[in-house]
Amino acid sequence: MIWLVAFLSCIGLISAETPFNHYVHNQRVIGGHDAKPNTWKWQVSLQYDSYNDGLFYHMCGGSIIDSLYIMTAAHCILSMDASMYRVAVGEYNLYKYDGSEQFIHVETIVVHPGWTEDLGKGNDIALLRLANPVYYNGHVAIAELPTPGEMLPHDFTCYITGWGLMDYGGSIPAILQVSPIAVVEHSICSQPNWWGSIALRSMICAGGDGVISGCQGDSGGPLSCFTDGAWRVHGVVSYGPAGRCNQVFKPTVFTRVSSFLDWIYSVSLLLPL
Question: Active site includes 268?
Answer without folding.
Answer: no
